[in-house]
Amino acid sequence: MVHVRVDGLLTQFNSFFGAAGGGTHMKILFVANEVPYPPDNGVRIPIYHAMRLMYRAGHHVALAVLTAEADEVEARFKSLTAKFSSGRSFVERIPRRHSLEMQLTAILGKRLLYVERYRSDSFRRQLTDCIGEFCPDVIHFDLIPMAQYQDVTPVGVGTVASINDSYALTLENALRAGHFKGFEYLYKKWQYRSTRQYEKTVYAKFQRVHVMSEIDKAYLLQLNDNLRVSVIPNGAEDSLFDIPPSNHQQLDIIFVATLTGTHLKGLQRFLSLSWPIIRGHHPKIRLFVVGKIGPDARRVQEEYRTVPEITFTGYVRDLSDVYRMCGIAIAPVDQNCGLVNKVIEAMAAGLAVVGFEKTFAGIPHGKPGVHFVQTADYESMGHDITKLIVNQSRCQDLKLAGRELARRYYSWSSRGESYHQMYATAAAEAAQPLLT
Description:
By secondary structure, the protein is an alpha/beta fold. The chain is about 45% helix and about 15% strand. The chain has 2 domains: about 10-230 and about 415-435, Glycogen Phosphorylase B (Rossmann fold); about 240-410, 3-Layer(aba) Sandwich (Rossmann fold).
């Protein structure tokens, strides 16, 4: 079915192109696969702040969620929409499906598994009704699984695929790093090739594709140079800049991440290759591992339960509390896709950050040795952290320079105009064909 939006289109079109100062009020519908509240992981953070910034700028905001989450879904949804939603919003849970049935359906339907997982006729109908009632000027489809619903968009309504980073590039990094073996390697290799084709073709249907770094933009344009890609990096919570300098003397180490996949594999390599070096020189230094502990992370926690200097805190809602206890943040993930948001957050909190060259690839204004420590491998990471602990003056210089970098380029409060321009441009480009 083809939907056409024509009411008030000429006025809308002219106002979008005259909105250089950000004065136009739009209707923006956000479509997500997680309730983006609280903003405590890489999935929720960008969309939460996009909603917050647009709502506070006077735009009308609505939210549609299809989720597999189980924790307080309705309560979190109500809390978020009470803050920022000014239009019809709804949340739907994905019915539980057997994994083998879902995989078989994906194969027979020639769909990627993470697309099949979020395929729902019921949600599609609800989303169509929501669009008809809310009449958005632009629709923000969050992450790769929700891009499949672009085809319910009426003609004349702008679309943005906000994907954080290229999943094909993420898989490419993981394959090169040797994270997969045997059958898993073969499966990930197939998934990588299929994802490249998906990103090449599906994203071309959107007026804008939103990513976090120029590296992801260049990768996507290599797949399809007709893609219209906007780069708006993540930011840091303003409250992190308020951690007082007196706490910057701390030297304990912190790792904050979603403790699954490549993040968990990176932590395991750090614990086996870097941590023994650090502990050998500084046995009293502590390591705090912060993130929700699922089955895989629990096995790692159990492996190190006899090491009192290593603490798995579990989920922490306010990261300011744990950042205050530490002085060095590690990012032992060797990937150049996206922007490692926890790196920016740690800098904003006044910690010295240690990672690999690819870790900081999405931070073009940062300089190795000035704003962060760039290390070659896991053994080098252990030695470089040991040197930082000894040379507290250099460690302090890194903390101060990193915080200033984060404050200057990566505060969330500076992102509002960029989001406005992206949405306004998408809406105007969608409206233009109907006026010619």
